[in-house]
Amino acid sequence: MSTLMLHYLAAIAVIFLVNLMPAFGPPTSLVLVLFRLNWHLAPVALVIIGAFTSGAGRYLLAAATNHIRDHLGPRRKAGLQAANDYLTGHRGRSLAGLAVFLLSPLPSAQLFEAAGLMGVHLLPVTAAHVLGRLVSYSLYMGAANVAERNLGATFSAALTSPYGIAIQIALLTAIVLLARIDWTKYLPRPTERNQ
Q1: Measuring CA to CA, which residue among 111, 5, 137, 133 is closest to residue 59?
Q2: pTM score of the predicted model
Q3: Tens digits of residue pLDDT in 139-161
Q4: What are φ and ψ of residue 47, in 5° steps?
């Protein structure tokens, strides 16, 4: 097997593992830039590999989170189902939810964990994630020359800056609250929504 093929396989493995991390993982875009700059891999191939491998990792993260739902009590399950019904029961809210997966600058791990907890259909959100990442990763690859000069600081800041840590902690807190809030008390019932 050629060295180039091994580099691409290593990129796939690292990107997949990074996207299985529930929090505090390095941004996939920066990992792709590192592979581009260190191993001189083709940017178009990295964008495609990165988007689809990221989608696969996030899908499995959401599916694993969905299994946690099975261990929750009936009240929490009912609350999560109410949140799911509210978000997916109306075309506008469903499209807005997909747009979040398509365009959100927030770390996607917690978005997928929330989707898994609520029992959302994962294929549409994963497809939106992949499409969004094809665009954003293309932009990062286009800016790889600029990033080469500041890559170490950018990579470190993404992982250790107070702002980055605060966002991760806030999103993890939001996921815990998602499961703890009794959404049946706060969201209209399906019959009330249809009136």
Answers
A1: 111
A2: 0.78
A3: 888 877 565 555 555 555 655 66
A4: -60, -50
